[in-house]
């Protein structure tokens, strides 16, 4: 039985791959924190909707003129607000802030540990089902 073919395990593997790549990008940012004109980078946030390949946008259909339009955007989701980066660029042109990078690395590490624990629990559950089913 190849667990990589199961949907949940595929999704967890993709998230772990993304977290690994993000760790590399963040470590490059930290390594170049004193390099003049270096611009910090980050990956596009991991979206489960994109990972599932569900790019369909369902819009509600008004079947009665008395229905309210609602306050959500198209597809039933609220619009995301972009938070501006409050940090300024250093006089040498470098915009890497070590505290911010370390917080991102810490969050990345916690996310990776969470996915790893979820993976372990799912494997244990499958093993338990196999043992009890035979």
Automatic annotation (TrEMBL):
Region of interest (Disordered), residue spans: 52-94
Record flagged with keyword Protein transport: no
Domain of life: Bacteria
Compositionally biased tracts (Basic and acidic residues): 78-87
The keyword Membrane is annotated on this UniProt entry: no
Domain Flagellar basal body rod protein N-terminal: 21-39
Subcellular location: Bacterial flagellum basal body
Keywords: Bacterial flagellum, Cell projection, Cilium, Flagellum
Chief subcellular location: other
NCBIfam families (alphabetical): FlgB
Complex formation: The basal body constitutes a major portion of the flagellar organelle and consists of a number of rings mounted on a central rod.
Entry similarity comment: Belongs to the flagella basal body rod proteins family.
Chain's role: Structural component of flagellum, the bacterial motility apparatus. Part of the rod structure of flagellar basal body.
UniProt-recorded name of the protein: Flagellar basal body rod protein FlgB
């Amino acid at each position: 039985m190849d667990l990589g073919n199961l949907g949940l395990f595929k999704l967890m593997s993709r998230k772990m791959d993304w977290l690994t790549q993000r760790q590399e990008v963040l470590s490059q940012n930290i390594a170049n924190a004193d390099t003049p004109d270096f611009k910090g980078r980050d990956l596009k946030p991991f979206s489960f909707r994109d990972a599932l390949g569900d790019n369909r946008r369902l819009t509600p259909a008004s079947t009665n003129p008395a229905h309210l339009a609602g306050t959500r955007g198209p597809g039933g989701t609220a619009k995301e607000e972009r938070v501006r980066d409050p940090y300024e660029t250093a006089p040498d042109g470098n915009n890497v802030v070590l505290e911010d990078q370390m917080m991102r690395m810490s969050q990345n590490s916690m996310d990776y540990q969470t996915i790893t624990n979820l993976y372990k629990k799912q494997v244990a559950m499958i093993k338990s089902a196999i043992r009890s089913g035979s």
